[in-house]
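# step 3/5: fold
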Amino acid sequence: MEGLAFQIYESLPRQGPGDNASTKKAFQKLVDLPKNPEILDIGSGTGTQTLELAKLSLGNITALDSHTPFIDILKYRVRESNLKKRIRCIVGDMTSMDFAEWKFDVIWSEGAAYNMGFENALKSWKTFLKPGGYLVVSELVWFKEELPDEIREYFLKEYPDMKHFEHIYSMVESAGYRMIDYFPLPSSSWWTDYYTSAEKKIVEMRHKYQGNKEAQSLFDSFHLEMDMHRKYSEYYGYGFYIMRK
């Protein structure tokens, strides 16, 4: 069923919640960057935020994702945008990157750090940052401490390590960074380029895979996720964390 899930993700403008305004807001928190910063975008997907980072800076960007079709789509978008000289697209695993130490001025990752665990990502990626370099990560967090049983139980299955947004601060400090800023993504970020497009794609695929119980179960799980956000978006979402080594 992983292949079917990727068919959905490959068709979306973004592979998770996000928006260009939030990417810009986070980037504008970075001060004292060199004129042409070296930027690493980890878990780039098809690269909507990668292209936005190229607009926001004169930097050289390395975009990394483990799913080859995502990188193929990004390569096409880079060519269409005449950015081949500034954006390098590579297929790779975020848990075993072999970049040189202290290579990057900025490491960026929107909604992908959970794949290796947020705390593990902070510690592992630090070696690739120059002294004073920035790590910018969006992470799924609780906005409130008191939670309805339904949404708490849902995420006990889906993301049991999910933290309250304020509890992340101490993890950042203990990993050797200084917190610069935090802000939550607006609820609209889940819909404009992600859920709305996903809903349309799933309707199309339900017809294509009629009678396939495993496929229909996958589509049901997507719909359940969307329904949870419709009901409980005030309790959880993505937070942008801007930190400095």
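# step 4/5: annotate
The mean pLDDT is 96.
# step 5/5: archive (pending)
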